[in-house]
Amino acid sequence: GNSVTQMEGPVTLSEEAFLTINCTYTATGYPSLFWYVQYPGEGLQLLLKATKADDKGSNKGFEATYRKETTSFHLEKGSVQVSDSAVYFCALSTGGTSYGKLTFGQGTILTVHP
Amino acid sequence: GAGVSQSPSNKVTEKGKDVELRCDPISGHTALYWYRQSLGQGLEFLIYFQGNSAPDKSGLPSDRFSAERTGGSVSTLTIQRTQQEDSAVYLCASSSSGWDEQFFGPGTRLTVL
Questions:
Q1: Average pLDDT of each block of 10 consecutive residues along chain B (113 residues)?
Q2: Does the beta-carbon distance from B106 to A103 stay under 8 Å?
Q3: Which residue of A has its CA nearest to B46?
Q4: Which residue of A has its CA nearest to B3?
Q5: pLDDT tens readout for residues A33-52
Q6: Rounded distance, CA B16 to CA B14, Å?
Q7: With 0-12 CB in 10 A as exposed, 13-18 as middle and 19+ as buried, what is B6?
């Protein structure tokens, strides 16, 4: 079956530090890949996505590249801010069906200090 | 509405009681999903609706769990004879079609004592 494994947290960084959160997946077919973010007290929201191999998703300074050869979709940001403190979830949905049921990783808590 | 809404935001119940959780999707969204977020299991898919039909119920953990959707809009997730392991945050998401971006509601935190 499908599964997503992401870097265990929590991750604590100082403002302006470089961020990497690792994510690898196992899937049948050709999945679409996503990063979702949950800010404190808010609902889950889509951060970025990539739908095919070598695609790069980007948003709010975050980037992730769909690497089929390593089955990975690592999240990166060059300079984090305190406002990036949140829980980050890597997720996938598989093709070949008519809907996008999401399979999530366990989530990584990121705390950024001033 | 402006986004997906869920009610109640918090629910505390006693073991063995039935509970109903409600989801109001974004107007016009035909696809609706229920997920569960718990400490032990992370975020898990429960059920998917397209209109009023549920072509995928594969994530419902037991026959104590059921869901329906009426008028292609509001959905209700019902848990009968609640158990302590049902304690979790139940999330609803909707999308304009099966493959479009899913928009999540704030969730219902269920605590079973």
A1: 90 98 95 91 90 91 96 96 96 86 93 97
A2: no
A3: A101
A4: A43
A5: 999 999 988 889 999 999 88
A6: 6
A7: buried
